[in-house]
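User: Hey, my collaborator sent me this sequence without any context and asked if I could get a structure. I don't really work with proteins. Can you help?
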Amino acid sequence: MAMTERYVTTAGTDTYANSTNSATPMSLATAFTNAAAGDRINVKAGTYTLSASLTQTNAATATTQPIWWRGYSATIGDLDTLGRTVSGTGPIDTTGFPTLDCGASFTITTAGFTIFERFIVTANRNGVALAGGISAAIRWVSCTNLNTGGSTRAISTNSTSGILTDSDCTSGGGAGCGNLSGGWRYLRNRFKGGTGAGATGSATSASYWVDNLFFGSAVGLDFTDNRSAGTALIYSNTFQGCSTAAIRLPANATNLNGFASIDSNHITDCGYAINNQNSATQADLVVRNNNRTRDNTNGDAGLGDSPNWLEITTDTGGSATDYTATGSDDYRLITGAAGRGTAAVKNRDVGATQHQDAGAVKFQPGMNGGINN
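Assistant: No problem. I've predicted the 3D structure and written it out in structure-token form, which is a compact way to encode the shape of the chain:
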């Protein structure tokens, strides 16, 4: 698709009209006020410290003419080959990414049919740092969202897709690190909760969660399914260290028209692996297959006679028996992990695919962080 290339730098002062020339860039605030469908806003590396909240004034109307925000270091496209660090599940390599600093008071709000690619977004505030302004398609690609405030969310958007993006509330508490309502796709992301925050918030309609890592939630929930319609596919994710539950299904059956497919996940060190809060009427709406669990205090709850095939559960060992090095956020599965047991289905790995034997799987360059088996 043809895009109109526009430019932003930390020192940019020119007009929106002149911003198609890299020699006459505009400011970030000017870009948020004026960006229109079909614009690709190229934001040069540097720290953009907000002095007021930024709200994207205009929304695009179709995926063929989005508003596309793209970070670059020195030349356009020079960050496009970066993926995750070599530890496999470590943070995204953000070398040369522009930083948007919301501080303790400000918020960045996007609008419909927007792509946000290769940014670091930081905040230290009670509340959300990033928000979606309307219920429409918003895509996050290779971004790092960090909020270290007291009652925090790093990101809260509607109808969002996330690809190779990290959301981190390590030092925060209160609400979930990510509140990702609406039904879209989440592929190869990391959600890291804090001392009082779950790793992610809720999905409220049909959604697909594949190859994600949820961890570090000392209090709260890793993933909450609050759908009012549609199907949730929760496939090949890794959940670790959430004191309440890795996956929580809706408490009110009348809010759910659809079912949850929970397939090939690796769930360890949580209060519950799966907690269906409305067991009397909802048990048959959950299908489990080929999951691997270890050392979850209460196992599963409220699932009744829901189908459960090929699950392997062990109650011994610890993180060192499953993961390469949890202290450095390296959650690749070691050879002896429960998820790689002898009863596992051949050629069907569990947990996020980048969480396998150390050195066996690394992200290749590219936007989607492709893997190499």
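In plain terms: Confidence is low (pLDDT under 50) at residues 344-348, 353-373. You can pass these tokens on to your collaborator as they are.
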